[in-house]
């Protein structure tokens, strides 16, 4: 289909990637964003090979390689620092055909903004849509309206347009844990510069992952009741308490982090949706499949969405609605599967059933590295670019 005007609501990873892909396909694209200033949420993100392959196809391969960390090894360690498993990643890279690139979210956002290059209308809070036979109109809180052939709702975890698509409100599910995350300079007192290390114990995790600019993206996971106050001025003291007695690199990390630069989300996901599409409106990214971060696939799934949506608009010519329904069928199966797998993984890691978590700790110590990389490869190769 040619000559379409496409309205994108949201300038996050999914919205910007969709903007790039749809623009390259020759469509007229307009991106709207609720906030007055674009600031990425969270410090870092693991872009596995399925997401990177889409960026390669969009001409961003060199750019993502320049900002991505060179992650050659994964290590699991006990809370006290004993090595459970050393997992070289080269077999995974060879199996799936692309290196993963953990990145700082700000670097990724700037790369996508440059790749898009078009106008982003900030301060436009989309409050609804109106459809008729000929098109769809996005309605904004400031009184503005814009009409197009379709609307891409990439408006995130608390999507305003999701209830329009699904026909009902959808509550977020608390995954049971809080995640502190940020960036610190690479240092041998923390971890080798090319190693993603994960310390596990007491249903908690502490992790360091290399990103571009000689930095580690770090996170701490702690199961806590929902609504526990954040108290940024207490972050270091709290983490010292939660991770008392853990290995020295974990203690070094706690001392080196800057509490003012640390994000602390309570982790939620969204139950799998029956549909990602209604008429001329398509959900994309977290608006469609908010997922626990325990598979590292949230950003990758948004990027896959953008690719598949563009593919069907380009490759089918029956109608916009037909193309969106094909997108819906493919992405609903993939996205909902990832949501379920990530939720199961989150529960396994964070002690929902303490016996299941204990067995996982034992499994980490005896599992063959190839089994770990095969499991990651299965998730990666389930995407649209094999």
Short description:
With 386 residues, this protein is an alpha/beta fold. It has 13 helices and 18 strands.
CATH topology: FAD/NAD(P)-binding domain
Largest sheet: 7 strands, mixed
What would you call the structural class? alpha/beta
* Whole-angstrom Rg: 21 Å
CATH superfamily: FAD/NAD(P)-binding domain
Counting DSSP E segments of at least 2 residues, the number of strands comes to 18
What is the general shape?
globular
Poorly predicted runs of 5 or more residues:
none
Helix count from the secondary structure assignment: 13
What is the straight-line distance between the termini? 25 Å
Domain FAD-binding: 5-341
Protein name: FAD-dependent urate hydroxylase
Cofactor: FAD
EC number: 1.14.13.113
How are the secondary structure elements laid out?
Elements: E1 5-9, H1 13-24, E2 28-32, E3 44-47, H2 49-57, H3 61-67, E4 73-78, E5 83-88, H4 90-96, E6 101-104, H5 105-116, E7 120-121, E8 126-132, E9 135-140, E10 145-148, E11 150-153, H6 162-166, E12 172-185, E13 195-201, E14 204-211, E15 215-223, H7 235-242, H8 248-256, E16 266-270, E17 277-278, E18 281-283, H9 286-289, H10 298-315, H11 320-349, H12 354-366, H13 369-380
Parallel strand pairs: 1-2, 1-11, 2-7, 4-13, 11-18
Antiparallel strand pairs: 3-6, 4-5, 8-9, 9-10, 12-15, 12-16, 13-14, 14-15, 17-18
Helix pairs in contact: 1-5, 1-10, 2-10, 4-13, 10-11
């Amino acid at each position: 289909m040619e000559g379409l005007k496409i309205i994108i609501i949201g300038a996050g990873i999914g919205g910007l990637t969709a903007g790039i892909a749809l623009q390259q396909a020759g469509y007229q694209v307009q991106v709207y964003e609720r906030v007055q200033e674009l600031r990425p949420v969270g410090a870092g993100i693991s872009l596995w090979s399925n997401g990177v392959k889409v960026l390669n196809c969009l001409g961003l391969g060199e750019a993502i390689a320049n900002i991505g960390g060179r992650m050659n090894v994964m290590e699991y360690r006990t809370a006290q620092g004993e090595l459970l498993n050393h997992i070289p990643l080269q077999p995974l890279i060879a199996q799936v055909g692309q290196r993963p690139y953990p990145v700082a979210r700000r670097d990724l956002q700037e790369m996508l903004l440059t790749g898009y290059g078009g106008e982003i209308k900030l301060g436009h809070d989309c409050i609804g849509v109106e459809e008729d036979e000929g098109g769809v109109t996005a309605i904004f809180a400031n009184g503005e309206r814009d009409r197009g052939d379709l609307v891409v709702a990439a408006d995130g975890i608390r999507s305003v347009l999701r209830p329009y698509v699904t026909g009902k409100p959808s509550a977020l599910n608390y995954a049971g844990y809080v995640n502190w995350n940020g960036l610190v300079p690479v240092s041998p007192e923390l971890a080798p510069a090319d190693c993603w290390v994960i310390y596990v114990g007491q249903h908690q995790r502490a992790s360091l992952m290399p990103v571009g600019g000689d930095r580690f993206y770090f996170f701490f996971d702690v199961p806590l009741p929902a609504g526990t106050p954040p108290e940024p001025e207490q972050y270091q003291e709290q983490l010292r308490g939660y991770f008392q007695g853990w290995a020295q690199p974990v203690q070094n990390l706690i001392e080196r982090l800057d509490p003012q630069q640390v994000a602390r989300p309570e982790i939620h996901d969204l139950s799998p949706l029956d549909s990602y599409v209604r008429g001329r409106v398509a959900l994309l990214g977290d608006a469609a499949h908010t997922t626990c971060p325990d598979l590292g696939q949230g950003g990758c799934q948004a990027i896959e969405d953008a690719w598949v949506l563009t593919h069907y608009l380009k490759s089918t010519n029956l109608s916009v609605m037909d193309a969106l329904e094909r997108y819906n069928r493919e992405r609903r199966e993939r996205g909902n599967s990832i949501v379920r797998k990530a939720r199961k993984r989150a529960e396994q890691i964070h002690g929902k059933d303490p016996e299941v978590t204990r067995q996982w700790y034992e499994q980490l110590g005896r599992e063959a590295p190839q089994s770990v990389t095969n499991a990651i490869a299965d998730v990666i190769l389930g995407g649209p670019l094999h």
